[in-house]
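TA notes, week 10

Several of you asked for a full example with nothing omitted. So below is the full record: structure tokens for the whole chain, then the designed sequence directly under it. When grading your own attempts, check the secondary structure regions first.
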């Protein structure tokens, strides 16, 4: 299961690099429709905004995929639970002696 999580993370990380660089390259080399009619200032602004939006879309998709991961419900060890309940219900001798010493001092 850990391998699939790492694989999804690696793929999402690659898209977070590839998508904005491809968008910037496409705008700067007039590969995208309508980008040749924009001024250089507008090309820079539009390509930057679209690149940022593409990264946010990749992040949202990664979060969506992470939320769909199966969650195995963790079951604590029964022996550990029994020992913990026993330690809470039976105080140690030190706690009773310390409270008795406080009473004696008063």
């Amino acid at each position: 299961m850990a391998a699939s999580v790492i694989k999804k993370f690696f793929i999402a990380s690659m898209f977070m690099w590839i998508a904005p660089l491809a968008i910037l390259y496409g705008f700067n080399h007039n590969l995208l429709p309508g980008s040749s009619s924009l001024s250089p200032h507008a090309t820079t602004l539009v390509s930057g905004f679209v690149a940022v939006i593409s990264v946010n879309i990749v992040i949202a998709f990664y979060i969506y995929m992470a939320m769909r991961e199966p969650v195995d419900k963790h079951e604590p060890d029964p022996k550990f639970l029994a020992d913990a309940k026993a330690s809470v219900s039976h105080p140690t001798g030190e706690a009773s002696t310390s409270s008795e010493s406080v009473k004696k001092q008063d």
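The chain has a mean pLDDT of 83. Use that as a sanity check on your answer.
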